[in-house]
Amino acid sequence: MKKLNWKKYIGLIGILFLFPLILLLIFGKMGNHHFGKPKYFGPNAMTGADTTDYQLPPFVFTNQSGEAFASDSLEGKIWVAAFYSLTDSNAAKITERLLNINFKYRVRREIAIVAFSTNPSADTPEALSSYINQVNRYNIKADKWQFLTGQPSVMESFMRNAFLIEDIRNEAIFRLVDHHGQIRGLYGNTEYHMEDLMEDISAISKSIKVEKYNKKHENDN
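RESULT FIELD:
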């Protein structure tokens, strides 16, 4: 019986495995890398567009501490806007979704959560304070999660006109806002949507790093 030359076969297998890797490295060096870029949303681009000039208008509401919270506190940050009330039947599930996001980015001070009450009459600062004190146990930075309330008619008008929400009481709604104050994603209250939201946060974070790198080295060439 003819003895098999195992060294020959091992060498051949090694070449077969290395060849695709070599090609990948070559094309990786030659090509440009493009991260997935979340779409922009605005009055004229609610289905998503590659660009828009629309930015959220400034706002000031009352937070869980009974203090005025202004939108300029969010400048330069990526933030998740959540629209719900503590009185909602699915408030526990919404909280669970947001806790997952909050925990994942607990050390990322540039990523925040801002909840807007859809029932301001019931969501008083006292009620919101108790709620936020509980969720803040999962925060590294205490003011990472804000819950805003205010005059019902003013808040409802703002959510409809600024965030372009047709029915704020229909279901849990989430928006992703980038560091320029532009809406970059629309999401529902499902695990699938939350995965998309976190992927979009990562994509925007990467694009910010690229912007900073390019700005830092723009005079090198």
